Amino acid sequence: VQLQASGGGLVQAGGSLRLSCAASGRTFSSYVMAWFRQAPGEEREFVAKMSSNYAPAYADSVKGRFTISRNNAKNTVSLQMNSLKPEDTAVYYCAAGATFLGKFDYWGQGTLVTVSS
Q: Can you say whether the dihedral through the CA atoms of 6, 8, 56, 39 is positive or negative?
């Protein structure tokens, strides 16, 4: 599966952004879809994930502010980010995997989110 993320940009603290990820392939609905992020000088970290069989899961740092959703008919997964903070600044990546607790095998190219204070 190929993934293409979009929607990043510059936003002030407290603002909102919506990231989207378009996926190729006929079996999109069977994949666990996730968002990760990598801040400058930091390791990549998990943000959110969802599948057809499990409730969405979120990192504690974004719980209550970010919402992951997917549209299996359009092969897309989105990340609605509200109440953004400067520490949310990072390159955001969408990813796809086979199992909810397993690793993610497919990655998009990343989209930059910059939150100014």
A: positive
